[in-house]
Amino acid sequence: MRASPLNQIMEEEESTIDMTPMLDVVFIMLIFFIVTASFVKEAGIDVNRPDAPTAVVKPNTSILIAINADGEVWLDKRQIDVRSVEANVRRLKAENPKGSVVIQADKKADVETLIKVMDGSRAAGAYDVSIAAND
Predict the structure, then answer these.
(1) What band does 46 get if pLDDT is binned at 50, 70 and 90?
(2) Which of 30, 62, 114, 124 qualifies as a cystine partner to 89, CB 3.0-4.6 A?
């Protein structure tokens, strides 16, 4: 007995696997991971940080401010005036209310500039201010 053409078509359809639902799930997962990923922001310059044997890693850092040896203040890869730290931190704090501020000060940075940056950050409502150091 020969197989009818209808049976042949049915057998061919059963032997293939439809990949569309799996691809849909993969793309949805990819979009989910992209949206929920937290990206590391850089201050904009490399700073020679001092060593501190008691330094600990700060996991939820969203605002990085760098102070180089010349007293320049950098935030989001651009140089800012020390007087505008409060406004910039307030703007970034509004984007991420749970984020903390980490100040990366050079070993030779002026302490007065560091204090002004800390005061500006606290005046903007960021009370979790840390100073970066090498461990």
Answers:
(1) low
(2) 124
